[in-house]
Amino acid sequence: MTARLRIENLSKVFAENPRPALEMLRAGAGKAAVLEALGQVVGLDDVSFDVPSGAIYMVMGLSGSGKSTLARCINRLNEPSAGRILLDGQDLCALDEAGLRAIRRSRVSMVFQHFALLPNRRVIDNVEFGLKLRGVPPPQRRRRAEEMLHIVGLARWGHHRPHELSGGMRQRVGLARALATDADVLIMDEAFSALDPLIRTEMQDELLRLQRTLNKTILFITHDFQEALKLGTRIAVMAEGRVVREGTPQSIVLEPGSDYVAAFTREVDRARLFDARSVMAALATILRGQDRIVVGDASGEPGPGFLLDGEARVLGALSAAEVERARAGGPKPEPDGAFTCVPAGAKLVEVAGRYRPGEPIGVVDEAGRLVGLLGAREILARIAAGGSHD
Ligand SMILES: Nc1ncnc2c1ncn2[C@@H]1O[C@H](COP(=O)(O)OP(=O)(O)OP(=O)(O)O)[C@@H](O)[C@H]1O
Ligand SMILES: [Mg+2]
Known about the structure:
Belongs to the ABC transporter superfamily. Keywords: ATP-binding, Nucleotide-binding. One of its GO terms (molecular function) is ATP binding. Residues 5-265 form the ABC transporter domain. This is Glycine betaine transport ATP-binding protein OpuAA. By secondary structure, this protein is an alpha/beta fold. It folds into two domains: 3-107 and 183-268, 3-Layer(aba) Sandwich (Rossmann fold); 276-383, CBS-domain (Roll), CATH 3.10.580.10. Helices cover 36% and strands 26% of the residues. The chain contains 16 helices and 17 strands. The chain has a six-stranded mixed β-sheet, with helices on both faces. A four-stranded antiparallel β-sheet has the order 2-1-4-5, with helices on both faces. A four-stranded antiparallel β-sheet has the order 11-12-13-14. Helix 5 packs across helix 6, helix 5 (123-133) runs parallel beside helix 7 (167-180) and helix 6 packs across helix 7. It is globular. The two termini are 31 Å apart. The site of adenosine-5'-triphosphate (ATP) has 12 residues, from strand 2 and helix 3. Adenosine-5'-triphosphate is lined by residues 14, 41, 43, 61, 63-69, 223.
C-alpha cells in the first residue's frame, strides 16, 4: 500500500512568530515548558505518519491533544508552523490560495462533529453544495446528490429542512455531502461524537459498509479508543501535541508501550479485537511425502497435528500420539480425530465458539491452506485482560 497522505514533522505553535517555540521543541522541551517560558500554546509537536490509500486512519487522543489542529492544518484552516503535508507527493503547505481551493473542492472533504449544514436550505441542496461550488451543472449534481442520500439511507428526506431531522440523520447528510464531492480523501473530525450510543454504533457500521465499496482514504479523528479500534486500519495516539504510539489496533493493545496508552487498553474486549492469525502457533513440517505433509506445532512440544495434501490443504487431524510416531520416523500416519478449521481473520470470540475439547483447531488462509494451529491455551492467554502472550 502506498501513502496517499503523508504527514512529515508537522508542528503548529499558535504564535505570530513560532521560531523560539520551535527551537525549544527541537531541543526537547514539551508543550507545558513552552507555555511556561513563552506563554505560547503548542498545538502539534513534530507529528509524522503515513495514511495508506484506502485506509481508515484513526487519530485518537484526549481533549486538547491536538487532533483538530492536525485536521485543520491538512485543510490549511490552521497554518502549519513547520513540516510538510504531502498528498500523493504534493506538498499542501506550498500551495497558493487558488491551488488550495482546488484541493478543498475536489480532493479533500471534511465532516465535522456539528454537521455544519446550511439551515435554510433543503437537505438535497446541502448535499449538492460542494458540487455547486465546483460548477457541476444542476441536473448532474441533483442526480449525484440523490444517489448519495440513497447511500446513507435518506432517499426520502431530500426536500426536508435540516431542523426536521434528528442529530443522527443530520450527521448522515454531512456524510452524504462529503461523499458527493467525489473527494478521495475524507477528514472526519469527531464526526460521530455528538450522537447517542446506538445511532453512533449504527453510523460506525454504516461507514465500514460504505468504505468496502467506496474505498476512500479516511483520516478519522476521535477521543474514543473503542471507536478507534473498531474503525481503524491504523491508529495514531496523540498526547500533548505529539504522536505517542502508532500502529494497528491489535499491535497497540498488545504492546501499548507506555502507561498512558495502556490505560486506554484496559477495558478492551480482546476476544473481539484479536484474530486467529494473531495468536496461532507456527507450524513445522514433520514428514513430507510425495503428496502428503504431516505438520505439528513448531515449538516441538507434544500436541496434535494435521495431515495435509501437497498444496497444504487439510486432509485430517492427527492425535498427539500419531504426531509423535511420525516424529520418530514411524509408518505413514492416518487421520484419527475430529477437528475444526477457522479463517486466519476470524476473531477469537468466533473461534472460541467453535472450540470443542480435545479437537485441534487449524487456521487456514483464503486458499484453504493451513497456516497455523490453535488450542484453548492460545485463545485463553490472549483473551485474559493484561494480554500477556507468553
Ligand atoms: N486558535 C487557537 N489559538 C490558540 N490555541 C489553540 C487554538 N486552537 C487550538 N489551540 C490549542 O491547541 C491545543 C490542541 O487543540 P485541539 O483543538 O487540536 O485539541 P483536540 O485534540 O481536537 O481536542 P478536543 O478533543 O477537545 O476536540 C490545545 O491546547 C488548544 O488550546
Ligand atoms: Mg477537536
